[in-house]
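TA notes, week 10

Several of you asked for a full example with nothing omitted. So below is the full record: structure tokens for the whole chain, then the designed sequence directly under it. When grading your own attempts, check the secondary structure regions first.
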């Protein structure tokens, strides 16, 4: 467990927190005027390894060589040269801060952080964090990495690298409204970037079901058809990797560290968050009828039918581009062509 304190005066600024993986949708902008929930679960924090905030420099000024040294391998509009390591927590886990009134700008319904850090330490006045709660943005407080320090707090849970996440609530792919989940759109956008890189430009064979609903049309539009095709198969806790030759393995991310699941023999893989991976490889198979027989005559079952989406699935374009730009394989001509095509089409249908 970690407690964050002000780097200036040592005042406590957070509840005791345990580290979790940074969600794929951490910087997602979703819809128009949509009020999104809190990014991080209460009692957890995540660290963004990427630089964030000003100064910003355009791609034309940075150049390919310097951008590649920073882990960006395809053109982006601008690159942040701020300090890496911003820390995301739930707003309800913040302690001892005050809003900075002159930095409370927002685009529509709340704070968007465009004016810089808008939370100050209540004791010494140091600007320590940025609260974001505007519409279409995930609600979070982001501690500035150079304004806070993390100190041990309480007993360690001892589960930093634990793959047992059965107690974590699953994220269904379809919202109650019948729309595809924003979290799934972001996670699949990131996973698609890794899947394309692992394909090497060859055809990919997907298993039937939700996997094809999520990735099928996108791969058909991006990769050639025919054989031989690389088969996508699951691997992870309880799913040992078998026949690794010419396969691409769908693997989970560690729910606490964000690391990809790895095993001997796996050469090509692409990740999804643990709960989404589990939903795809081991969906809930509960029977809709009692195991010992049917319902009595004259009784009509009132369970709601399974949710079905009202539109085709589309991955998050921005998350896809952000992830693909940071995969070295994007420098290969065939994959760079896909990146440029999606990047140039703006808000139009990408595939």
């Amino acid at each position: 467990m970690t407690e964050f304190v002000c780097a200036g005066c040592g005042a406590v600024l957070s509840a005791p927190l345990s580290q979790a993986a940074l969600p794929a949708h951490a910087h997602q902008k979703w819809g128009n005027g949509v009020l999104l929930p809190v990014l991080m679960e209460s009692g957890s924090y995540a660290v963004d390894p990427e630089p964030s905030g000003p100064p910003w420099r355009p791609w034309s000024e940075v150049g390919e060589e310097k951008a590649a040294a920073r882990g960006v391998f395809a053109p982006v509009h601008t690159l942040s040269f701020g300090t890496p390591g911003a820390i995301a927590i739930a707003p309800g886990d913040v302690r001892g801060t005050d809003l900075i009134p002159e930095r409370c700008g927002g685009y529509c319904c709340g704070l968007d952080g465009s004016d810089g850090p808008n939370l100050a330490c209540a004791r010494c006045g140091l600007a320590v964090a940025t609260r974001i709660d505007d519409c279409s943005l995930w609600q979070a407080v982001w501690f500035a990495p150079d304004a806070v320090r993390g100190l041990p707090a309480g007993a360690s849970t001892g589960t930093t690298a634990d793959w047992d996440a059965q107690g974590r609530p699953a994220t269904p792919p379809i919202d109650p409204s019948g729309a595809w989940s924003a979290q799934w759109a972001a996670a699949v956008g990131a996973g698609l970037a890794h899947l394309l890189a692992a394909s090497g430009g060859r055809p990919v064979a997907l298993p039937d079901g939700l996997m094809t609903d999520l990735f099928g049309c996108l791969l058909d539009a991006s990769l050639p058809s025919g054989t031989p095709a690389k088969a996508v198969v699951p691997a992870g806790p309880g799913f040992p990797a078998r026949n690794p030759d010419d396969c691409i393995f769908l693997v989970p991310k560690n729910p606490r560290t964000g690391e990809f699941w790895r095993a001997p023999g796996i050469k090509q893989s692409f990740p999804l968050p643990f709960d989404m991976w589990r939903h795809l490889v081991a969906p809930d198979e509960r029977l809709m009828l009692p195991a010992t027989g049917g319902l009595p005559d004259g009784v009509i079952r009132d369970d709601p039918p399974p949710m079905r989406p009202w539109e085709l699935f589309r991955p998050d374009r921005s998350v896809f581009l952000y992830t693909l730009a940071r995969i070295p394989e994007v420098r290969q001509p065939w994959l760079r062509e896909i990146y440029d095509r999606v990047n140039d089409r703006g808000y139009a249908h990408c595939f």
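The first strand starts at residue 2 and ends at 6. Use that as a sanity check on your answer.
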